[in-house]
Amino acid sequence: MNAELIAVGSELLLGQIANTNAQFISEQLAQLGINVFYHTVVGDNQERLSSAIKIAESRSDMIIFTGGLGPTKDDLTKETISRELGRKLVVDQEALNSILSYFKKTGRVMTENNRKQALIIEGSDSLPNRHGMAPGMLIEIKNKTYILLPGPPNEMKPMFVNSAVPLLAKMQTNPLHSRVLRFFGIGESALETELMDLIDTQSNPTIAPLAKESEVTIRLTAKHEKKDVAIQLLDDIEEKISLRVGDYLYGYGEQSLPETVFCLLKKHQKTIAFAESLTGGLASQLLTDIPGASEVFKGSIVSYTNEVKSEVLGVPTQTLETYGAVSAECAKDMAKNIQSKCKTTIGLSFTGVAGPDKSENKEVGTVFIGLADAQNVYSFPYQFSGTRSRIRLQSAKTGYDLVRRYLRQLSPFGK
Amino acid sequence: MNAELIAVGSELLLGQIANTNAQFISEQLAQLGINVFYHTVVGDNQERLSSAIKIAESRSDMIIFTGGLGPTKDDLTKETISRELGRKLVVDQEALNSILSYFKKTGRVMTENNRKQALIIEGSDSLPNRHGMAPGMLIEIKNKTYILLPGPPNEMKPMFVNSAVPLLAKMQTNPLHSRVLRFFGIGESALETELMDLIDTQSNPTIAPLAKESEVTIRLTAKHEKKDVAIQLLDDIEEKISLRVGDYLYGYGEQSLPETVFCLLKKHQKTIAFAESLTGGLASQLLTDIPGASEVFKGSIVSYTNEVKSEVLGVPTQTLETYGAVSAECAKDMAKNIQSKCKTTIGLSFTGVAGPDKSENKEVGTVFIGLADAQNVYSFPYQFSGTRSRIRLQSAKTGYDLVRRYLRQLSPFGK
């Protein structure tokens, strides 16, 4: 089965946004073993969209559309496809009800064009939209499959994963089984060097490393008609990899490093609090983005000035005057104080220079991370590089990795 | 002149990377007034690339290729185009010299396939590559323009800006001038309804609304050979729009709401601190991501539990017991206390239910935002919807918008 993606939206052709939807869907289809041979982007123009549909129909079995399901005049994807297929648009009562209830609940005024969002192509399966108003659609006509998805990624992604993927998985015969291993604290080249012989002799499963946002992932993909055999193949190769670089392996699939730490804290019934200077709330934000964060997270102090460091967080002015705010000593005081103020098992602190300018005459990228429990307090120095955003993210992730290592008794803690 | 982009690379079709090159080039072309009607992505496959070229030739005056100029076997963009055009590949001596000198300088061994990178299509202008080995090309044949660019963005972007843009600017007679207006607190449909007559009669400038992450932007685009006339056209339409929905207009171009607030705080010499419950550090993180944030931001307390709310932030236990943490009263105490603890002009607080579960028997999406200065304290209730992430982001942005309105004396403050 060959698929092709058509994104509809003049904002893409004007370069206002990148077609990240195509990346997401392609990745999902690759995991299902469905070949994608083309992506097309076309503007909010009925004639050009019609022509793109005709070209796609001539070369692909499945066409997946994103965008153009909204309420405004230039949203015309389903109108155009319904015309091409010779099918009417009909009201999807469930979608209409959910639109009506949204406006009732929020008290906002419903304009007539919102009603248009509840229309679907006659004969199609409606894909419910839990994060927006326009439902998606899946329709099969003359051995071709058409899938229509909304453009906003926060609506499209869950709809695709929850509603489209299960339907597509059923259509596949010799499926691929994938597993993604996630590593932190080791570079792509170093990881590849460690696994060189395994990578050179790979066939089934395949081993594909990929560097992304200061992390490295390895995608293992096994092909077998029997799922349990495929899973055994994946287990075997993962074991070999773990023996060599297991300390850096923090999770699987889409799991983030903060999610791993969240699960570990929960499992060990530990709690955490942060004292943040250069990360400025980022470490707290990453944890509280996880549902149920309150089970392990109590609170933080973002101490962006020395005044707040001493008066609110209680760092002794002597520490600040003698060593400066960007110092191992200050990191220790911050970690210790937040741990005792919030009465948590662990206190984690971040202080450093995010840039673009030096601070206290210390180089951009100089960072100290402190970790305190009821008995001990540690501090670790780092020198990061790159933009302000990158230094902040790298700092936060490194802090999370320290907590992971602390809880799992890995180096520099325990073993 | 109508352009079309073709990106060549199986990694795009596998979803390993997004086609950010298309976004970059499209934005550049929009600024030059060159229409882009299609983006296509095709894999490293000669037959499918040939077919994509034929389709593009049938509908566009200019085709811009990215990717497939590298040394490996699956890099076959220029080979395929040279065959389509019936032109030989010839050595670009300057490119070859620079490749030879790179290998000499680094001491790395030059393999035979590196020599392939110095080949260009006969009759084309070579576009030098300052950040990699493969030169780009521009060739005009039978009134069509073909531009070939490397795939890695760090090579492609400077090449396009430095070598291609000047050549393209010369070809253009009637350039476009764009301005993006950014709105918060009004939905896309409501905004369109307010501006319906302007949108219906638009011609020059054009008016294009776009919804994005709980915000709406409007792109105004004027076409005129004289820049000052184009700018006057943009000023005139912006004035008309501002008269109707100016209170919601917070910025221009790529400016974010936190950036707007940062600039306003700086301009009015005010400082701010946050007390965050459901936003869990997000409001602080958004501000500290801006270089120079310390000029206006002093610190925050993330009070995720009632214990931290009372013991660290100093919210009276009576407030928590009588009204609960998710209440107007608690939002007021939080804002007041963080303002006085951090000694700032403004204290801003967030409390509410981010979900997925109810809290204190209050619905997911129930949010209170408090704002305190030295004299007054306000609190505002909201009912948001969507995912946890969306509710948190919507809360943080709404808080920033309140600060903007407070500093600009707009409703619900002042006028």
UniProtKB/TrEMBL annotation, chains A, B:
Gene3D superfamilies documented for this protein: 3.30.70.2860, CinA-like (3.90.950.20), MoaB/Mog-like domain (3.40.980.10)
Pfam family, one: MoCF_biosynth
Superkingdom assignment: Bacteria
Residue ranges of domain MoaB/Mog in the record: 4-170
UniProt xrefs under SUPFAM superfamilies: CinA-like, Molybdenum cofactor biosynthesis proteins
HAMAP family referenced in this protein's UniProt entry, alphabetically: CinA_B
UniProt record similarity statement: Belongs to the CinA family.
Name of the featured protein: Putative competence-damage inducible protein
Gene it is expressed from: cinA
